[in-house]
Design brief:
Layout: H1 5-16, E1 20-23, H2 27-32, H3 39-53, E2 59-62, H4 65-68, H5 71-87, E3 91-98, H6 102-113, E4 123-126, H7 136-145, E5 148-154, H8 161-164, H9 174-185, E6 195-199, E7 217-219, H10 232-236, E8 243-247, H11 249-252, H12 258-277
Parallel strand pairs: 1-2, 1-8, 2-3, 3-4, 4-5, 5-6, 6-7, 7-8
Helix pairs in contact: 3-5, 3-12, 6-7
The protein binds the ligand O=c1ccn([C@@H]2O[C@H](COP(=O)(O)O)[C@@H](O)[C@H]2O)c(=O)[nH]1.
Length: 279
């Protein structure tokens, strides 16, 4: 029986620190690395990042969009990235942001969370904006396969609040409702639940939100989007110990040199550790 994702993630965070490095092969980054904007460039880029970081960070988050844009050959590269990352000891959070009616959601869940799937990942980002209940097949399969979900709650982009801050008839915001659903999923889980929220490090004051969901908080926005490791304690308060900060371009812009990628990763990891320890 596979250990639950939350258990595996807690251990990885304790051993390696909480940093998640994102693999986002933007066309502009491929060019900066001297690579062509084609499948060969994609493969060289992403496997270089895996070699540089997957043996030292807790989590790697491939951004599926940048692989899908090359069609089946790009997805084949993504399969190798997942396999090599897991072999090097990091957990893979597949950032594919899937969300659909329940019957179709079952298909997406099979694609990423079934142990025999070519893209089997430790966790998947999902969108609850067809209604949280539409995610039920993914929750069920995640429980069976020892994987996890990260549900978009308070995203890092400036457009998010128009949906996520909207107030429901019961007076709760949409985002607070998602957090409450996650707290219910994770009730009783130890040391950490497997059902996390995506909460951007850029979103500012979260004091009106209950982030105590007993699950991980994936926090994109550090680096290129303007948030810093020092911002984390103020944004996440007492939940900061469960935060998995993601940095993609902030690390990737230092490539293709492996030593430079590792130095940038170590610098972010150190700043995050110091900020969390001092909070
Ligand atoms: O709210 C969200 C949810 C996901 N993301 C993703 O994280 C990375 C951020 O990349 P940076 O280069 O560090 O800005 C990217 O894959 C986004 O799709 C997010 O930014 N915000």
């Amino acid at each position: 029986m596979t250990e639950p994702f939350g258990t595996r993630l807690r251990r990885a965070m304790d051993e390696r620190g909480p940093l998640c490095v994102g693999i986002d092969p933007h066309a502009s980054l491929l060019a900066d690395w001297g690579l062509n904007d084609d499948v060969t460039g994609l493969e060289r880029f992403s496997r270089t990042v895996v070699e540089a970081v997957a043996d030292r960070v807790a989590v790697v988050k491939p951004q599926s969009a940048f692989f899908e844009r090359f069609g089946s050959r790009g997805v084949a590269v993504l399969e190798r990235v997942v396999e090599e990352t897991r072999a090097a000891g990091a957990l893979v959070v597949m950032d594919a942001k899937r969300g659909d009616i329940g019957s179709t959601m079952a298909g997406y869940a099979e694609a990423f969370l079934h142990k025999d799937a070519p893209l089997f990942s430790d966790a998947l980002t999902v969108s609850p904006y067809l209604g949280y209940g539409s995610l039920a097949p993914a929750v069920e399969l995640a429980r069976e396969s020892g994987t996890g979900l990260f549900v978009l709650a308070l995203t890092s982009n400036p457009e998010g609040p128009e949906v996520q801050h909207a107030v429901r008839a019961d007076g709760r915001s949409v985002a607070a409702t998602m957090l409450a659903h996650l707290a219910a999923e994770n009730a009783g889980a130890e040391p950490l639940g497997s059902f996390g929220a995506v909460v951007g490090a850029t979103v500012g004051d979260l004091s009106s939100y209950d982030l105590a969901i007993n699950g991980p908080l994936l926090a994109p926005g550090v680096g290129a989007q303007g948030a810093t490791p020092e911002d984390l304690p103020a944004v996440f308060g007492s939940a900061v110990g469960n935060v998995v900060p993601n940095v993609s371009r902030g690390v990737l812009r230092h490539g293709p040199d492996i030593a430079a990628l590792r130095a940038a990763t170590a610098a972010f990891a150190g700043e995050i550790r110091a900020a969390v320890a001092g909070s």
